[in-house]
Structure formats: C-alpha cells, structure tokens
C-alpha cells in the first residue's frame, strides 16, 4: 500500500507569479475525480489497486509520445499480476468515476472569475467523458491523445495553457499525483497539489506551492 503524506504542506508563493492566476488548469483523474476508488474496486481491493495504478503512472510518465491509453492500462495490470482484461473493465465502468466530495461548488465559484481547463493523461474519448462527470465548468479539455504526448512532457502542459490563451506564468496547475506535480513544475507552471488520496511524494511536496486535502482549500488559497 502506498504510504500517506501525514500533514498538509504550505509554503510561500513565488514572488514572480503571485496568485490569483489568470487561468487554472486541473489534472482530471486524480485532482478532480476519485479514480483511485474505481481502480481499487476493479482490482479487487486497495492494495492491488494501488500497485496497479502506481505501475500505470510510472509507465505513463516514462512514455512520452502518445500510445493508446488502454494499452498502457492493460500492460500495467499484467505487470502487477492482474488480468489484462481489467483495462476493458475500466473502460466499461468509466462513467462510475465521481468527483471528490465538495468539488462541484468550488469549481462553479472559480469558473466565475477565470477560465478553467483540464490536462489529462488519457484518450480523447475517455477524457471528454471524464471531464463531463466533473461538471460543465471547463473552457478547454486537453488530453494526451489530442496533444500527442503524455505528461510530464512539457508540450501537453503548454497545450493546456495555449487552449486557454495564457502564458505559463499566468497559469496555476492543480495536480493530483506526485508525478504530475514534478512534471508541471518542470514545465514552468506554479503548482498546487490536491491530494485527497493521501499519496506519498516528498519531492512533489517540496515543489508544490501548497499540498491540499480538501477542494475548498483551493478556493481559500485563491481568496
């Protein structure tokens, strides 16, 4: 089982890019949606689900140019001793993904003041379906398939910024995994880590502007 980060981390904002930002980009499948519970359920339990998901994240973040998303999911399942058919089951149950509790009113309020967008490591079809599950709040949805690259390649983050007509220094990226924190930071974005899944990641904690557990904390940070 992946150990948890024990306490929220808050550090001063970089002087060169103070909040509030012009636009906000979100990771989709961890920062906005509780995809972890779905993967755990398909795998048969949290321990197996976390092994599968972390294997997938490590493989995806080492991939670079886009390859079919469900192939990566199936390869990752096989690598940790699960059936490759778990990928097809994930696709079939995709619409069971649910936003983290309390998220919807936060997004609704944030969208009143600035454009919101999504940058996600999945296919175009599944990315669009997942974004709809998080609500009708996004001016842009950029997937690995549409960008041609998986995170942490900086080109997918830049595609997200470009879709919202913003420069990198005008963007706040809300990451959902430690891999994404490091990737967005490396692309020159200010990063907040929304970590309700309680994932470990000391390096990510040091690079993030803040590590938050509750969606309402995002709104508080921008107040």
Average pLDDT reading: 89
Roughly how much helix do the residues carry, as a percent range?
40-55%
CATH architecture assignment of the largest domain: 3-Layer(aba) Sandwich
Strand content: 5-15%
N-to-C span: 35 Å
- What's the order of the H and E elements? EHHHHHEHEHHEHEHEH
**Count, helices:** 11
The whole-angstrom Rg is 16 Å
Supply the number of structural domains.
2
Strands of the biggest beta sheet: in what spatial order?
A: 3-2-1-4-5-6
- The quaternary state of the protein chains shown equals single chain
What would the CATH topology of the largest domain be? Answer: Rossmann fold
State the total count of DSSP E strands. 6
Please give the largest β-sheet: 6 strands, parallel
What features would you highlight for this structure?
223 residues; alpha/beta; DNA polymerase, domain 1; 6 strands; 12% strand; disordered N terminus
Account of the protein in words:
The chain has 223 residues and is of the alpha/beta class. It has two domains: 23-34 and 97-222, HAD superfamily/HAD-like (Rossmann fold), CATH 3.40.50.1000; 35-95, Orthogonal Bundle (DNA polymerase, domain 1), CATH 1.10.150. The chain has eleven helices and six strands. The chain has helices spanning 35-43, 46-61, 69-79, 85-92, 103-113, 124-133, 144-147, 154-163, 178-186, 202-207, 215-222, and strands at 23-26, 116-120, 140-143, 171-175, 190-194, 210-212. Strands 3-2-1-4-5-6 form a six-stranded parallel beta sheet, with helices on both faces. Strand 5, helix 10 (202-207) and strand 6 form a beta-alpha-beta unit. Helix 3 (69-79) packs across helix 4 (85-92). The longest helix is centred in the N-terminal third of the chain and has 16 residues, at 46-61. The radius of gyration is 16 Å and the shape is globular. Mean pLDDT is 89; it is low at 1-18.
């Amino acid at each position: 089982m992946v150990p948890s980060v024990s306490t929220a981390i808050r550090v001063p904002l970089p002087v060169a890019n103070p909040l509030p930002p012009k636009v906000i980009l979100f990771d989709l499948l961890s920062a906005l949606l509780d995809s972890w519970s779905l993967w755990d359920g398909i795998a048969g339990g949290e321990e197996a689900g976390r092994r599968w998901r972390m294997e997938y994240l490590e493989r995806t973040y080492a991939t670079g140019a886009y390859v079919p998303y469900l192939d990566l999911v199936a390869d990752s399942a096989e690598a940790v001793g699960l059936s490759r058919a778990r990928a097809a089951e994930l696709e079939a149950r995709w619409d069971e993904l649910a936003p983290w509790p309390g998220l919807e009113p936060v997004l609704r309020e944030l969208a009143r003041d600035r454009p919101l967008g999504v940058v996600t490591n999945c296919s175009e079809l599944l990315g669009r379906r997942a974004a709809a599950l998080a609500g009708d709040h996004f001016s842009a949805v950029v997937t690995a398939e549409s960008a041609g690259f998986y995170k942490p390649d900086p080109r997918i983050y830049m595609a997200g910024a470009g879709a919202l007509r913003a420069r990198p220094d005008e963007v706040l990226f809300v990451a959902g995994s430690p891999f994404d924190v490091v990737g967005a930071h490396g692309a020159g974005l200010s990063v907040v880590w929304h970590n309700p899944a309680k994932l470990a990641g000391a390096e990510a904690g040091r690079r993030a502007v803040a590590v938050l557990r509750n969606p309402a904390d995002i709104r508080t940070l921008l107040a």
